[in-house]
Amino acid sequence: MAYSRLRILIMSLGPRAFKNLPDGVGLKTAIQAKNEGLVEADGEFSAVSKYRLTAAGITKKSLYGGSKRN
User: Fold this and answer.
1) Which domain of life is it from (predicted)?
2) Contact present, 43 and 59 (Cβ < 8 Å)
3) Is the whole model's pTM more than 0.90, yes or no?
């Protein structure tokens, strides 16, 4: 998985509200992030699902220099 896509995904999501995938990030990246425990979906993983960060995703986001709140 491309590092830049994972970073875009993590930086665009927060821990509370479920959001759509950002432009340039596909389902493959979302599935990989889920397998790494960084995101969760509001249902089955698909292109129309919405996503949010898990505790591990919040930690990763803070390592990237992003805000913990979104």
Assistant:
1) Bacteria
2) no
3) no
Output the six-digit token pair for 35.
Answer: 């397998």
DSSP-assigned letter for residue 21: P
Residue 16, CA atoms < 13 Å, CB-side half-sphere: 3
Q: List average pLDDT for each run of 10 residues in the chain, which is 70 residues long.
A: 83 95 92 95 84 96 74
Residue at 2: amino acid letter: A
Residue 7 and residue 61 in contact, taking contact as beta carbons nearer than 8 Å = no
Q: What value does the CA radius of gyration of the chain take, rounded to a whole number of Å?
A: 10
Q: Domain total for the chain? A: 1
The Cα–Cα gap between 54 and 46 comes to 18
Which residue segment(s) compose the domain that 27 sits in?
A: 11-33+49-55
Q: Which two tokens stand for residue 15?
A: 């821990």
23 lies in some domain: yes
